[in-house]
Amino acid sequence: MGKMLLEAASRWDLNIHVLDPDPGCPASGLTRKHQIGSFRDYDEVLRFGEKMDCLTIEIEDVNTDALRVLERQGVVINPSPAAIERIRDKGLQKQFLRSHDIPTADFRLFDSRNAIEAALAAGEIRFPFVQKLRTGGYDGRGVQLIRFPGDMHKCMEGPSLIEDLIEVKKELAVICARNAQGELSCYPAVEMVFDSRANLMEYLLAPARIDEEKLREAEVLARKCIKAFDISGLLAVELFLDDRDRLWVNEVAPRPHNSGHHTIESAWTSQFEQHLRAILNWPLGSANLHHSAAMINLLGSEGMEGEARYVGFEEILGMERIFVHLYGKKQTRPFRKMGHVTLIDDNEQRAIEKVKYIRKQLKVQS
Question: Which residues pair with 143 in a beta bridge?
Fold first, then answer.
């Protein structure tokens, strides 16, 4: 995310610095200054942020105590520390959605696996359900689908939310942008297809294959969310369309998001440029798509771990209106996000056939 944000910033000659503990992180080759340090460490964040005019994030797991101090000192921080704290704890996030009458699955909060088991024994919750760790989950980690008593070995230890399993027809996402003046813009909803083993998106179609009424309804929900959380920047709103054609908010993320990568090639303004415009309180760009698109995540192959090799790379490069993005991560492991491919095609069936071909031909191996 940081690398692609820097690519967008380079066109405006913005002086962007990066705080990351990895000397070889993808953003390190593009930033004017890479401060090696942990964004989870209070002193490191404070020392880094005191030199900045504006701070933003690419992951919610940051030291917000330090961000609050910097905010009081006058540093512009978008999204705000309060919004980050409210969103990164999935329990607080769900309570916030409910308190603002935003439709989301029924849920309960538990402190431990033992408490979940006790609630099951008492009949207070029932199978099937979804368990989400309240904090620390990312890229498919920290979520388990528990359908039957025999699945309880997958139940994770730690503070969790347990939510009802919604019978999902489609998984959607809307990326919304808002600046400090209240100007607001949304990209058309995308349709996401997931790998059930890793709980990671395999590919998306933009716009989603839903009718105009549902597209508008999804945008209305996204707008309601970004206003409620008072975000300056981007808010990615993930939604479920259930088997009765009802929309539910699954969860939100206050930053550029995997579901918006296609906008680099398919929209008049990419999500990364839009995020910069929003956090700097500049006019927002057009979020309209000039072409329909699909985006495929390049995930590390199952059973492969070590130095990354991209098998089929040159063959894919030879295709028209195909855009390959490699993130520069040197080491691959199963299901690690190593890059993505965007294809532009206004013919839906042809686009799906290209998705299948690319997924078959291009592999990340070790």
Answer: 132
